[in-house]
Amino acid sequence: MSTATAILETAARRRRHWQDWLVRQVIYLAAVMAISLIVLIFVFVAKEALPVVTSAEVHQEVTLETLFLPQAYGTEEAPLPYVWQPVSAVPKYSLAPLFLGTLKVTLMAMLFATPLAILAAVFTTEFAPTWLRELIKPVVELLAGLPSVVLGFFALIVLASWIQQALGLDYRLNVINAGIALGLAVTPIIYTLSEDALTAVPRSFRQAAYALGASPAQTAWRVVLPAALPGVFAGVVLGFGRAVGETMIVLMASGNAAITSWSFTESVRTLSATIAAELAEVVFGSPHYHVLFFIGTLLFAITFILNWLGARLIGRLRQRLAGAEQ
Amino acid sequence: MIHRLAARLADRTLWALTALAVLVIVAMLAVVLGNIVWHGWERLTWEFLTAAPRVGMTEGGIFPAIFGTVLLVLLMTVFVVPLGVCVAVYFSEYADRDSWLYRWSRQAVNNLAGVPSIVFGLFGLGFFVQFVGRGIDTAVYSGRLTYGQPALIWAALTMAVLTLPVVIVSVEEALRAVPQSYRDASYALGATRAQTVFRVVLPNAFSGVLTGGILAVSRGAGEVAPILFVGAAYFLPHLPTRLNDQFMELGYHIYVLSTQSPDVEATKPLLYTTVFVLLALTFLLNLTAFALRARLRVAAGSGR
């Protein structure tokens, strides 16, 4: 009898042990999968982009030089060194107008969102009473929860007309319109990270400033904000990354004309919107198809670097504030 | 004296400036929401929610788009929640903080959250449709085009990859809120780590899992760029019934209707109502998640 119980107990223990082992393998496998996903994304997007560099067939239509260097399009009197016109008798694949477009829209968005978000974060952490603070945060989360297609729709149908009338512009859809809509999407990111950084500044910093006779504004502006600066800067960098990659808003609100100019009142086409607008109609495996994946690889690389930079800045903030008394 | 006056002036100015910034943000949100609710509310009828579009999208309803969206996010949830929970469990319960696996997987999840949504669309096309789908066709259907084309299942999987970080962050936060004493008690009773995690820790973090799922659904319902090339269609006469069918989707519907409609003025009222429906859907989901998380934080604060 007692031997039977002992055997059963051993069996149960063994099963438990075996189960424990199996669960551990599954959990570790999940972590490995998380790593492989990001690798797969890069590999499978870059794989389709590779023919732009290696394939002789693709090179008859487009090479790295035509993508990045000035070309002799146009006439002698009116040369057009940078043209994006992939669907035409002579396909032209200059990325310059797209890079310039992305830069202009992103710049506009950052100019709009950065001061707004940082100032709002300062108000939330330094001046607002607790009840108001608990009210502002959900509002910003609500803004962050707005689907980008909804922001794009609003910019296309409503905001564009308002801005055109207010500034008397020739084109409804332009850099200013797309930039402001994009700024609305970026504001919550910069705000949240700035707010986190400001909150992380120890109270002893503020007490020390007050003890030296500083006013609340002096404390906020000259002590707390500088101490939180790496975190605030991380917010700006990550917001920039989001703005560069954001697609639906610029696709709907920018007018999508690939013009090479510095004007903020003309239509504009970004890298991301180019992929979204053209990939559905492109011939599978054509040079155009591979160039669009090449643009995707560039976007991946740009945002990857910006995210890495943002993470490093947050790390620096933690290091700087570590050890100080709360 | 003048010095102190200047300081007071600076105080007031900074206060006013920062308060103004908050006001501007709140006002902008109010204008966007107000505009959409104002124009979208009046045309919202039961018929609009349950009928198919008619007369070139100028009449009828948006039922197929709602159906497609729900199907997409449900399917996505089936993939993303189990994987997200497992990765969160790894981070919170299993990982050795100095191991390469922890550092690399943490880095991977952070980077995944920053990948532009349009790149997910390229990935979905290149990996799921071209590689996995074509592979299945060659292996199972002797090369007949079945899964090697844009389809519901590939869109759901693409969306699952995109929302993975959302689930992980939310579940991990909930797992960390479970008091250490619960784990200690479980071990003291002779439970293994697996038993502790699945019978003690996870049940106590259930609201976090729920929050993660809801936030993922809300995010997935609002994203359009990833599904542009992997299965969304402008108009389909039939509802999708199989995994390799194409589908209509709310966000995609809004995009196409507002950019490619031949008669913008005629479709505008319907368009507004569609935007209102999508907005109501995502906000209800976000609000639920927000309430759940607030409750979780209160519970964690009181030590339970």
Task: Output the keywords.
heterodimer, A: 326 residues, mainly alpha, two-stranded antiparallel ribbon, B: 304 residues, MetI-like fold
Kindly describe this structure.
- The complex is a heterodimer of chains A (326) and B (304).
- By secondary structure, chain A is an all-alpha fold.
- Chain A has 2 domains: 2-49; 92-321, MetI-like fold (Orthogonal Bundle).
- Chain A contains 14 helices and 4 strands.
- Chain A has a two-stranded antiparallel ribbon. In chain A, strands 3-4 form a two-stranded antiparallel ribbon.
- The radius of gyration of chain A is 26 Å and the shape is flat.
- Chain B has 304 residues and is mainly α.
- Chain B has a single domain, classed as MetI-like (MetI-like fold), CATH 1.10.3720.
- Chain B has a two-stranded antiparallel sheet with strand order 1-2.
- In chain B, strand 1 and strand 2 (59-60) form a beta hairpin.
- Chain B is globular, with a radius of gyration of 24 Å.
- The relative contact order of chain B is 0.14.
Give a topology summary:
The complex is a heterodimer of chains A (326) and B (304).
Chain A: H1 2-49, H2 51-54, H3 56-59, H4 64-68, E1 73-74, E2 79-80, E3 84-85, E4 92-93, H5 96-127, H6 130-144, H7 148-167, H8 175-200, H9 203-211, H10 216-227, H11 229-245, H12 248-253, H13 271-278, H14 287-321
Antiparallel strand pairs in A: 1-2, 3-4
Helix pairs in contact in A: 1-14, 5-8, 5-11, 6-8, 7-8, 8-11, 9-10, 11-14, 13-14
Chain B: H1 2-41, H2 46-50, E1 53-54, E2 59-60, H3 63-94, H4 100-114, H5 117-140, H6 152-177, H7 180-188, H8 193-204, H9 206-222, H10 250-260, H11 264-301
Antiparallel strand pairs in B: 1-2
